[in-house]
Amino acid sequence: MQDEDIKKHLKDHPEFFEQHASFLAEIHLPSPHGSGTISLAERQQLAQRDKIRVLEVKLGNLIEFAKENDATSDKVHAFSIKLLHQAREQNFNALQTLIAESMQHDFAVTQTQLHIWLPPTDSTLAGRPAFKPVNEAFSDWCTALTTPFCGEKPAVAVGLIDASLLSNAFIPLYNTQDKKRAFGVLVLGSKDSQRFKKDMGTMYLERAGDLISTALAAYL
User: For the chain, which residues make up each domain, given as ranges?
Assistant: First the structure.
């Protein structure tokens, strides 16, 4: 009789264990945590404890993730309030400073870059670094983004991004009435290679992008 035959027989005849309860107590298996043997019942208890430990770790991770999400949500909310207050000033330089400082201080970003390829309504702003022309390949790549891009910088961004930044987030900026073509991009850079990972969630980055897009639209 093969192993599979034995397993099938026991599955098909669960009453066997009721009829031979004493037999189960006689079975001893190698201990998974050291030398010697343990009873089948003890082995089952150990297996159950291991499962519980795994569940505890998963639950702990979920709780920690929820706490991080709550903290990030609070930061995005605080950032939106700052943008609302700043909007009253109608000062582009102050807005750009607010965005950079908030990203760096509140969201642990090493460096930010703002690139806008639509002309400003106020021609005196055209000379600002944010409106400096970028290569067409880069703007086309950003325009094609439907969600923020996270990870190592793409080839089209070489020369634009500091080489010391090991991970980046490229957040496309859209006019609320035209979500098909970005008018610019906010680049967040970090010296931590794990800060912006390729497979990370981008919900909060998208929300920040919407807020920043709305604030910048007043100058375009």
Answer: 52-217
pLDDT in tens, 121-164: 888 888 898 999 888 898 899 888 888 999 888 888 877 878 78
State the pLDDT confidence band at 172, using cuts at 50, 70 and 90: very high
Q: Considering the entire predicted model, what is its pTM?
A: 0.69
Banded model confidence at residue 187, pLDDT cuts 50, 70, 90: very high
CATH topology (fold) of 52-217: Beta-Lactamase (3.30.450)
Alpha-carbon gap, residue 41 to 21, rounded angstroms: 11
- Phi first, then psi, for residue 187 (nearest 5°) are -105, 125
CA distance 24 to 61: 38
Q: Which residues pair with 175 in a beta bridge?
A: 178
Task: Provide DSSP, 164-193.
Answer: T--EEEEEEE-BTTB-SS-SEEEEEEESST
Q: What's the number of CA atoms in the CB half-sphere (13 Å) around residue 213?
A: 20
Across 31-165, the runs of DSSP E, i.e. the strands, are 37-39, 111-116, 149-151
